[in-house]
Amino acid sequence: MKSSRITLKDLAKDLNLSPSTISRALGNHPAISDFTKKRVQNRAEELGFRLNSIASSFRKKKTDSIGIIVPRIDIHFHSLVISGIEEYAYNNGYHVTIFQSKDLLKREKEIAKILQTKMVDGIIICLSIETKNCDHFKKFDKLGVPMVFYDRVPTDFEANKIVINDFESAYTATEHLINAGCKRIGHIAGNQTTDIFKARLEGYKAALKKHKLPIDSSLILPTNNLNYEEGVKCAQKYMELPELPDGIFCANDYTAVSIIQVFRKAEIKIPRQVAIVGFSNYPISKIIEPNLTTINDRAFQMGEASAKLLIRQIEEKNDFIESETITLKTELIIRESSAKVPVTKKVVSQK
Asked: In CA terms, which of 72, 82, 121, 148 is 20 to 30 Å from 9?
């Protein structure tokens, strides 16, 4: 055969079968005998023939493809979510394409435009920190492309969402410090333009109010990105205060780890002088000394739940269901960084 690329017609001519029979055999159509299927598939493999996936998608009106938009792939939380999405999608016959917005609204809008032309069956999204208006996603509704938002979700239109209760989780973390005997508790807060970090700050405040402890604004330190470097600066600010906090709830594990390292270098005893709780249960929380008490935010399960909800939408197309919100339970994992009295490591579930 002269062409370097084998076509469907070439394969049909080689096997003396019709192109439609070849297409059905390669698509495992029940009307084609097992003998013919095997014959076609073996010869296709020998000749290096592959079905045109784009043409096949047009015929099926389905690509078996899911687009994912995440703020940052290098954040452990998002990599776990992606892993959960990919695992469930793969087991259900879908493949995924991953884009990262780098927490930039401009980039997120550009990705949305790209996905509008890529014929994906559905999209899973975590909004960038800069995103306040989600008009750029509304076109997917008009195109009939299902969407599921996770973690950072829109408030300006109805959408399918997978979330955790950030308020309740922060309340639990702060109350744990109170029950450990802390009375002067600080909070390293996430970007307050983002709802999940607002909720964590409010959960922290609510726990203090319930236990009649003062809310001291000098102990609440806001950050932009909750990265390690910002955590170091927050630790230094705490050490400059006339009196150290005796407990600190951090809105993520990166800042909690940096607090532990800075304090230990300054010979501040953890947890005897300052007890620390993080959020997200990153792998480093089990490596740092002392091991970090943290909230397990179920990132992998969030990915699984997002893919499950999206694929159900794609395949069932229930027009009578406008949107759905699923809230996953978190878990407080108690480790050495908050144990005022040394105890055997244990896990405590929080509902």
From this structure: 121
